[in-house]
Amino acid sequence: MHTHRADVAVLGAGPAGCVAARHLGQAGVDVILVDGAISTGSHHVESFPPSGAPLAEDIGLLSTICAASDGPASAMMMNWRDMSEIRAFEGDGPLLLRREALHSALRAEAGMHARMLQTQVRKIVTSDDAAEMTTDEGAIICRMIVDARGRRALKRQGSDLVALPFDARGDVPDYTMWLDALHNGWLWAASLGGGEIHGAIFQKASALAGLSSQGRRALARHQLLHASAFSNACDLSVGPPAAAGLSAMRDPVQSPRHVLIGDAALARDPIASHGLVHALRSGVQAAVAVRTILDPTGDTQAALAFLRQKHVEAVSSAREATARAYRDQSRFTGPFWAERSESIDAKTAPQIGSGPVTLADPLTRAPVLETDRIRWAPAIALPAQNSFFTQHGTVTARDIAVACRPAAPLQEIATRLGRVHAMPIVFDVLQHLTLGGAFAQAVPLPSNKPCARVTSHPSSREIMRDNVS
């Protein structure tokens, strides 16, 4: 048995782990990337939305992602509402990625900057300044653990939704995606060239409990018969079911030396999409936080607070997107849909009238990324968005706090800020703060008072409303 030493051990060589290891290694950090090589049973193709391209380009992985793709989807066939829909993409559709090729390419990228170790982690012990792991290949001693082992990283309350991946062939248009609601579940699929179809059927775990591989194939065949595009599909094969619903850890910081990222911290429901984008972003955020912690002059508490805050924002966004997607389904009713269509308790900003307003909470501080380290900065809490405002353009949180003293109508606060900052930025900032719940009425507002609005000129178009619809 060997003892391996490194600055950082990244556990899990999925997208989040590979990005974190690559990012840290590029910065000169000594990294071991531990690949447990556990199959997740996921479907063979996934989509990458155009909105993720800027992030992928910023971290130098856009060409790698594109290389794992046969090209963008040309259309999405949706049987989700009362009427079937065709959403055509005019050259800007999501990239259809071959999952195996993508993961192989990301491992190769990480391998150029980190040492690879294929083994299973059996035990983790952390102290104030180090961490030690017991693996099948010996011990690993490091200063930080970045845990990207997915849903299996640690025990947590799971979702009863599972994915049954399938492959098939059929007479279908090339480079097309499908989203179909079923009586007791839903399916997503994508076609590549030559009638090649890959997808997954999502339903309750109880529907698959105790089924053999032959039974799972029969169930998949039955479900596909209800999807008109695949009723005549042939060469059907299915993989092992995998957990699929939204599942989030309460805290991504297990200890100051052990942090969770990617699906290990937040596994998104596939209905909300953007899972790969979340993995990439999570990997980068973890790398920056770890570099701050390893820096003798860095602020460890700011770095850990940064990871926690980003986790809260990601969980809130995922829950909202998931609830919205399930509520949007109107083809079927029944227990499966009723359980997933319940409204979430969304926070709303207080209604602000035309009278004087002030900050709802005193100026606080929040962790921010500055260059390649994380530091504290003055901040304004945005309770309706589970986030903070620190700065936009030239306008800082401290500028807002000063402009709110003494309390004044929003139009007057805008005027005060406009003496120093460009008015378009001022209006953007005040709108963002108002929707986030940053302001409160300095004097209680009578119920019959009209809501105030900030405009660039009394006769111009409305720039911002203070009430949240």
Outline of this structure?
By secondary structure, this protein is an alpha+beta fold. Among the domains are: about 1-70 and about 95-155 and about 245-330, FAD/NAD(P)-binding domain, CATH 3.50.50; about 355-465.
- Show unreliable segments: 451-469
How confident overall, as mean pLDDT?
89
In the CATH scheme, the class of one domain would be Alpha Beta
Strand content: 25-35%
**Would you tell me the structural class of the helices and strands?**
alpha+beta
Helix proportion range: 25-40%
CATH level-3 fold name of one domain: FAD/NAD(P)-binding domain
Give the overall form: globular
Compute the CA-based radius of gyration.
25 Å
Report the total helices: 11
Largest beta-sheet details = 8 strands, mixed
User: What is the CATH superfamily classification of one domain?
Assistant: FAD/NAD(P)-binding domain
CA distance, first residue to last residue: 63 Å
Tally of DSSP β-strands: 30
The CATH architecture of one domain comes to 3-Layer(bba) Sandwich
Task: Report what the structure shows.
- This protein is an alpha+beta fold.
- Among the domains are: about 1-70 and about 95-155 and about 245-330, FAD/NAD(P)-binding domain, CATH 3.50.50.60; about 355-465.
- It is about 30% helix and about 30% strand.
- It is built from 11 helices and 30 strands.
- Strands 1, 2, 8, 9, 10, 11, 19 and 20 form an 8-stranded mixed sheet that branches. Strands 5, 6, 12, 13, 14, 15, 16 and 17 form an 8-stranded mixed sheet that branches. The chain has a 3-stranded antiparallel sheet with strand order 3-7-4.
- A hairpin with a 6-residue loop joins strand 29 (about 455) and strand 30 (about 460-465).
- The longest helix is centred in the last third of the chain and has 29 residues, at about 300-330.
- It is globular and about 70 Å long.
- The relative contact order is 0.12.
